[in-house]
C-alpha cells in the first residue's frame, strides 16, 4: 500500500476516463463553502491513505463542475458516489462517520 495516497480532483473533462481507470472509486461532490463537506474532507483523506491500492478517492467541486453534479443528480452536498468497474453502485448523502464510508468501500471489494 502507498502511504502517501491523496484524493484526486476530477473535472467534467476527465471524469469518464477516471471512472474507467479506477475499478473502485469514491467520488465526493463538495463545495468549499459547505461546512459538512469540510468536516468530511479529513475523513476522506485518511481513507485515501489507508485504502491506497484498493480504492481511489476523488473530489468534484460542484461550484466549478455544475454539469457533472447535475449528471449524477447531486442536489445536496456532500454526496459520495461509489463506483465499481465504471458503474455507480452506491450513494451516501451528508457527512457520515468514517466507519460508514469504510463499510461502503468494503462492499465494493466483493
Kindly describe this structure.
With about 110 residues, the chain is α/β, with parallel strands linked by helices. The chain has a domain at about 25-90: 3-Layer(aba) Sandwich (Glutaredoxin), CATH 3.40.30. It has helices at about 15-20, 35-50, 65-70, 100-110; strands at about 10, 25-30, 55-60, 80-85, 85-95. A five-stranded mixed β-sheet has the order 1-3-2-4-5. The protein starts with 7 loop residues before the first strand and ends with a helix. The model has no long low-confidence stretch (mean pLDDT about 95).
Termini gap: 19 Å
Indicate the radius of gyration in whole angstroms. 13 Å
- What is the approximate shape? globular
Instruction: Describe the strand arrangement of the main beta sheet, using strand numbers.
Output: 1-3-2-4-5
Overall structural class, as computed from helix and strand content, comes to alpha/beta
Counted beta strands: 5
- Measured by DSSP, the beta-strand proportion falls in 25-35%
Sheet with most strands: 5 strands, mixed
Contiguous uncertain segments of 5+ residues? none
Question: Could you say what the CATH topology of the domain at 26-92 is called?
Answer: Glutaredoxin
Could you estimate the helical fraction of the residues in percent? 25-40%
In the CATH scheme, the class of the domain at 26-92 would be Alpha Beta
Going by CATH, the architecture of the domain at 26-92 would be 3-Layer(aba) Sandwich
Helix count from the secondary structure assignment: 4
Order of helix and strand elements from N to C terminus:
EHEHEHEEH
What value does the average pLDDT take? Answer: 93
CATH superfamily of the domain at 26-92: Glutaredoxin
Amino acid at each position: 500500500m502507498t502511504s502517501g495516497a491523496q484524493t484526486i480532483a476530477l473535472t467534467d473533462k476527465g471524469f469518464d476516463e477516471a471512472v474507467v481507470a479506477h475499478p473502485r472509486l469514491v467520488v465526493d461532490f463538495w463545495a468549499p463553502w459547505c461546512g459538512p463537506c469540510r468536516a468530511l474532507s479529513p475523513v476522506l483523506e485518511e481513507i485515501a491513505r489507508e485504502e491506497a491500492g484498493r480504492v481511489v478517492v476523488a473530489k468534484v467541486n460542484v461550484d466549478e463542475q455544475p454539469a457533472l453534479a447535475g449528471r449524477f443528480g447531486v442536489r445536496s452536498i456532500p454526496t459520495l458516489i461509489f463506483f465499481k468497474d465504471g458503474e455507480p453502485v452506491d450513494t451516501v448523502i451528508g457527512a457520515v462517520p468514517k466507519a460508514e464510508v469504510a463499510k461502503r468501500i468494503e462492499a465494493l471489494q466483493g
